[in-house]
Design brief:
The protein is of the alpha+beta class. Helix content is 30%, strand content 25%.
């Protein structure tokens, strides 16, 4: 259109061709187009997410034997305290519950009888604490490990140092000596998280790393988006059409949601003590296929897990009986080297995992989906090594921010599907952003065309020339019904 085109008002507000009333309100065809483009945008967002995550997707397979790592029972019991409890003298409460908690099996679907192993260990290990922040999913986590001669009492702090001779840190590997840490970059990108590591030389010998997970922010961003969108819907229902007022209502709603999200994050931020895991020596028991390992120095209790649950229900009386059983069966009274020995416990389950195929879908190293299939064999301590079918079950649980659905038909292996909640949140986020951008673009294009047509004195919908020629000379090539009409 030439720049000198006349800018005029319509002589008649109603288009004689299509009957559209030019009163400045949003025309119905624009609303329809916006809705259509919002749907197309959502589909495009979905497609974009699939392209982003599927293209470089990786699957990992790993094997897992199903042994539960022993840990120090909390509250902690020294040999002396157990002896006192066995004689019904003053001692900490909660022995049976502590033993049950420390021997919780990793995989609740593992079939077979459950016994409990107990042993006594020194606590010359790290005390690990995590602080997490973020709601509904935590996106910031700080882990501190402090090494002690006695981590239960927090006595005899041993500062950690960087072992410059060691190989550079790799994820999921443990240093041989937890007090001599491998060199590690200050910032690393590890499994969809940005990890900030501070050398122990700068932290008085404490191992500190902070991880920020941008993906875990997705649910919060979805909530912000949803409040922005809903505020617009509510305001329109109440008859607000002015764009500035609409924008203000949306901004207020999103700001309110942001404040609620931050408040919820502050209220749910917490510091957690990690269990005090110990790693005793292991001895192989049994021959293939039923290979299992036993922890050196650990003895099975004669009462199985169910029996100890009954003892726990009996309170102090049950604790006293359990203390007597532990002392009797482990000969703990013989231990004495000047340092405290603490009660540690783990599960002894009738079966071992024979074959666990785990498929984890880690697109761009983001753990989204996992699927596993496990078959079980009887441990040698419980009889001949035969396959044991997983108990018929369907279990849904929430663990470590994963939704886990376990299923066993009762005649063979157990299956488990894991779903990271960040995936649906990302899905909604991509679709919302796609819908928003496309609806906005369609609206912008429509309004730009409407401005052009208004300037040329045409109907904004059907492009009908509504101007009387005497007001201004008609712009060149402007027939009454031109072919520029578009849907
Ligand atoms: Zn018209």
């Amino acid at each position: 259109m030439p720049a000198e085109a006349p800018v005029t008002v319509h002589p008649a507000p109603v288009c004689p061709e299509c009957g559209h009333l030019h009163d400045g309100s949003t025309p119905a065809p624009l609303k329809r187009a916006r809705r259509l483009w919002a749907r197309r945008g959502a589909a495009l967002g979905l497609l974009a997410l699939i392209v982003v995550i599927v293209a470089p997707s990786q699957t990992y397979r790993f094997a897992f034997s199903g042994e539960t790592i022993p840990r120090i029972v909390t509250p902690a019991f020294t040999t002396a305290q157990l002896r006192a409890l066995a004689e019904d003298l003053p001692a900490p409460a909660g022995l049976a519950n502590g033993v049950l908690q420390a021997s919780e099996p990793i995989d609740p679907g593992q079939p077979g009888r459950r016994r409990i192993l107990v042993g006594f260990v020194h606590a010359d290990i790290a005390h690990r604490q995590s602080w997490t922040f973020g709601w509904p999913t935590p996106w910031l986590a700080c882990t501190r490990s402090s090494f002690y001669e006695d981590a239960v009492r927090g006595e005899g702090f041993i500062p950690a140092v960087t072992d410059s001779q060691a190989e550079v840190y790799r994820p999921h590997t443990l240093p041989r000596d937890a007090r001599r840490l491998p060199p590690r970059p200050r910032l690393t990108w590890e499994r969809a998280s940005l990890i900030w590591y501070v050398r122990p030389e700068l932290t008085s010998g404490i191992d500190i790393s902070t991880s920020f997970s941008p993906l875990a922010l997705a649910p919060a961003v979805v909530i912000l988006f949803a409040s922005w969108f809903l505020a617009g819907v509510v305001a329109r229902r109440r008859g607000v059409t002015d764009r500035r007022r609409l924008r203000r209502a949306r901004l207020i709603a999103s700001a309110g949601a942001a404040i609620i999200l931050i408040a919820a994050a502050l209220m749910t931020a917490k510091t957690e003590d990690h269990p005090l895991y110990v790693m005793p020596g292991m001895t192989q028991v049994g021959m293939p296929p039923a290979v299992a390992f036993s922890y050196n120095g650990f003895q099975p209790l004669p009462t199985d897990r169910d029996g100890i649950q009954e003892l726990a229900a009996r309170g102090h009386d049950g604790d006293v009986r359990l203390a007597r059983q532990i002392i009797h069966d482990t000969g703990s009274t013989n231990l004495d080297d000047g340092k405290p020995w603490y009660l540690a416990s783990t599960a002894l389950i009738e079966t071992v995992v024979d074959d666990k195929q785990s498929l984890s879908w880690h697109p761009r190293a983001l753990p989204f989906l996992s699927f596993s299939r496990a078959t079980y064999l009887r441990r040698p301590e419980f009889g001949p090594g035969q396959y044991v079918p997983a108990d018929r079950s369907l279990r849904v649980r929430w663990k470590d921010d994963w939704l886990l659905i376990s299923f066993a038909p009762g005649s063979g292996p157990a299956y488990r599907l894991g779903l990271n909640p960040e995936l649906p949140a990302l899905l909604i986020l991509f679709m919302l952003v796609g819908a928003f951008l496309c609806a906005r673009a369609s609206s912008r294009l429509f309004r730009a065309r409407a401005r052009r047509r208004t300037a040329a004195g045409r109907c904004i919908l059907c492009n009908y020339q509504m101007l009387v020629a005497s007001i201004a000379p008609p712009p060149p090539q402007a027939p009454a019904h031109d072919s520029g009409r578009r849907d």
